[in-house]
Amino acid sequence: MKDRGGLRGGGGFAKRCRHWARRRAFGVISGHWEERDFAVMASPNPSMIYDYSGFPEHTYRIKYAAPGSPQTAERVRVLIEGAGFPTHLDEQRGFDHGTFAPLAVIYPNADVPVLQLSLKRGYDPGDHIAVGRALAPLRDEGVLIVGSGLSYHNLREFGPGAKAASTAFDQWLQATLVTASPADRITRLIEWEAAPAARKAHPQEDHLLPL
Which residues form the Extradiol ring-cleavage dioxygenase class III enzyme subunit B domain (predicted)? Predict the structure, then answer.
């Protein structure tokens, strides 16, 4: 495992992601940013946001110096507003660890422009699914869309005791994404709280909604 400026990651996975360099930009939906309405990072040179506490000192020196992409941010804003959701550009927002933590490991070159998208306060799954559909054209425009989160995010119950709940929810999630029909997939995601161990895996759904 190699150290990537304070983060450790698997070299094999990073190699499989090298084709990302052919992308025009990365659009990351982070579970660590929520606003009243959807928001899009529009800074040409995003700063770093160390939105955690109690970690080793070196984790507050991590840098991910990728440029932003105001032009792509405006395109994202237009797409989301076209789906009926008020959206604003945020020229001050920097990279939180929902963005820099995974990208520093799997794409350390930091030479592809990156922009972040917020969640919408209230966590309505239907709204977030609708925005995902609205953003779909970006895939054909050279933008890689990254939903940054976890299938299990219960900070009070990490460890061996969490295995049963984590496994149950993860199996449901994989079946929903891989084997369910498109219509059933949407229904299951909207009604995700009915899944096995749903609220055990996600006491708050901020790390699920980026999906």
Answer: 28-210
